[in-house]
């Protein structure tokens, strides 16, 4: 599928549906990146639906505490909690996962929303470019390590847990060059200092969002058909947020101008995250949500590259590399893959 500027403008100037409401009684919801922006607004919506437990995952204790207090004040939710996780630090991610495992609770909804905008190379202590590690290494690590808990939740409570990865329609406007597509160590390349030139960093955000979609499709393709978990990616649309707050110069000017003319409020954008997490047979056939790219609160075909033979090859190649990288960070990733997922499929899911 191709999307042009006019389609983008029409969507941004179209009144969006109200937030989907569900009864989340007894269910546990985790939102990564919940201190501000889309994550905060989505968490606030979940808080109003009487969940059994709502976990706000934030990097900053002070900003997270402020977000928690605002949500409690706005919704009266007495089961909201603040948990600290720095997705730019594998040690912090491991501590978060261990804490949740020891907690022993269920997990029904996981929204992987955390992301940062980066226009220059800044490495983490783990040696990866920061935006890439947060979006394309640490977020999948959390997902894969918590997958067994979601499977257990499905068995014990007869539910269909949801994994929602926040992506972007900007992926329509980016196709990796042939050299990158065929790189046998693509992830190692894009996360390295050598690759992160000023020119390549101009496309860092859209590349991370493309990789989000490929991860969702690769994971879905390896979930056995009987697995009740639904994994999807979602485009929240262009929204007012703090994502590009570090922009400077002419880029910052055009970013603010574009937002002023076209952007939804952050609350409106968060409705799309909630829909991806809660839509069921009354809104759309659940099977169509598996591995889906969701745009405008409906299942939509992703870019031509994503569904192409080349996109499928890249998808499978980076899956293998991702598991290799994450297994070195946490060997239990290999256990999850072996115990919960099927062998590599011959083709990607036909969405």
TrEMBL record:
Gene3D superfamilies: NAD(P)-binding Rossmann-like Domain. Keywords: Oxidoreductase. InterPro entries: NAD(P)-bd_dom_sf, SDR_fam. The keyword Oxidoreductase applies. SUPFAM superfamilies: NAD(P)-binding Rossmann-fold domains. Signal peptide: none annotated. One of its GO terms (molecular function) is oxidoreductase activity. This is NAD(P)-binding protein.
């Amino acid at each position: 599928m191709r999307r042009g500027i006019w389609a983008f403008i029409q969507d941004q100037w179209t009144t969006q549906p109200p937030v989907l409401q569900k009864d989340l009684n007894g269910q546990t919801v985790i939102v990564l990146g919940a201190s501000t922006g889309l994550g905060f607004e989505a968490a606030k919506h979940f808080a109003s639906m009487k969940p059994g437990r709502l976990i706000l995952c934030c990097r900053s204790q002070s900003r997270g505490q402020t977000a928690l207090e605002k949500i409690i004040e706005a919704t009266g939710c007495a089961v909201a909690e603040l948990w600290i996780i720095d997705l730019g630090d594998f040690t912090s991610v491991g501590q978060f996962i261990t804490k949740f495992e020891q907690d022993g609770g269920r997990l029904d909804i996981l929204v992987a929303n955390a992301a940062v905008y980066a226009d220059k190379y800044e490495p983490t202590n783990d040696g990866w470019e920061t935006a890439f590690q947060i979006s394309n290494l640490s977020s999948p690590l959390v997902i894969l390590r918590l997958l067994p808990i979601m499977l257990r939740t499905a068995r014990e409570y007869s539910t269909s847990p949801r994994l929602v990865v926040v992506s972007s329609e900007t992926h329509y406007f980016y196709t990796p060059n042939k050299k990158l597509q065929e790189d046998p160590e693509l992830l190692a390349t894009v996360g390295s200092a050598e690759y992160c030139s000023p020119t390549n960093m101009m496309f860092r955000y859209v590349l991370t969002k493309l990789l989000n979609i490929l991860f969702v499709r690769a994971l879905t393709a390896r979930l056995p058909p009987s697995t009740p978990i639904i994994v999807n990616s979602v485009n929240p649309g262009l929204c007012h947020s703090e994502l590009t707050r570090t922009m400077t110069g002419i880029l910052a000017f055009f970013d603010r101008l574009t937002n002023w003319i076209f952007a939804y409020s952050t609350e409106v954008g968060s409705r799309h995250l909630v829909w991806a997490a809660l839509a069921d047979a009354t809104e759309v056939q659940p099977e169509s949500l598996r591995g889906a790219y969701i745009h405008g609160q409906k299942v939509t075909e992703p870019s031509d590259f994503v569904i192409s033979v080349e996109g499928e090859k890249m998808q499978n190649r980076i899956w293998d590399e991702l598991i290799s990288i994450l297994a070195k960070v946490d060997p239990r990733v290999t256990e999850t893959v072996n115990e919960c997922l099927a062998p590599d499929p011959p083709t990607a899911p036909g969405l």
